[in-house]
Design a protein that fits this description.
mainly alpha; 2 domains; 78% helix
Length: 224
């Protein structure tokens, strides 16, 4: 997980800088980083807080952003069913894009689920600790980081790098394209609600596309 943790350095710095910019205390910034443990949610939450968005909007936005993790959870659930609840809860907390991408193959290939779970939890902890260090560094060192470095550009790059490998099937492509169009078309909505609405549209489009493909495949089987 060390390469993945290193790749998150600029992302974490941006999150820390944003938290300081909206006037969050060090304890509040650390609490948000440690408990939420989501860069995208942290950035959106701090930005929405900075423009005076209601708490309900902030929570809803973070909820929609985190819906992608439900797909990861569904993929991991069959492998974790035999473990005690405490291990499943810990795994859910440590679940991130990077941890899932690096460990799901181990769950699927290995018959030793305990070893695969240890690998996942160990990797997740490495990411969690690294994330706290980077967000706190961004919080306290934000004023000395040159603006010319354009660290904020690292955020979309991180998500593009994570999104690219996932765009292999038609439902995923449909979801990404529809959400991208919606977030631009609805840019005039207040309090960045275009992100929330675009996320819902993307999820709905991807789900509909998958259902249509399943019906088409079923119809072809019936004909045969």
């Amino acid at each position: 997980m060390l390469p993945a943790a290193a790749a998150l350095i600029p992302f974490g710095l941006v999150c820390g800088v944003d938290a300081a910019a909206v006037g969050a205390s060090p304890l509040a910034a650390l609490g948000l980083s440690a408990i939420v443990f989501s860069g995208s949610a942290m950035i959106l939450a701090t930005q929405l807080y900075g423009v005076g968005a209601p708490l309900a909007v902030i929570v809803l936005t973070c909820f929609v952003i985190g819906l992608r993790l439900a797909m990861y959870s569904a993929a991991m659930a069959p492998h974790l069913g035999g473990f005690p609840a405490r291990w499943r809860y810990l795994s859910a907390f440590l679940l991130t894009d990077q941890a899932f991408a690096a460990t799901i193959a181990g769950f699927e290939r290995s018959a030793d689920k305990e070893r695969a779970l240890s690998h996942f939890i160990g990797g997740g902890i490495v990411l969690w600790v690294g994330w706290q260090l980077m967000t706190m560094a961004g919080y306290f060192l934000g004023n000395v980081i040159p603006a010319a470095w354009s660290l904020e550009f690292a955020v979309p790059l991180c998500f593009i790098a994570l999104l690219g490998p996932l765009l292999r099937e038609k439902p995923a492509i449909a979801a990404a394209v529809s959400a991208a169009i919606a977030v631009v078309v609805l840019a005039g909505l207040p309090m960045r609600l275009n992100i929330v609405v675009a996320g819902v549209i993307g999820i709905a489009t991807g789900t509909l596309a998958e259902l249509l493909l399943e019906r088409k495949a079923s119809a072809q089987e019936d004909v045969r």
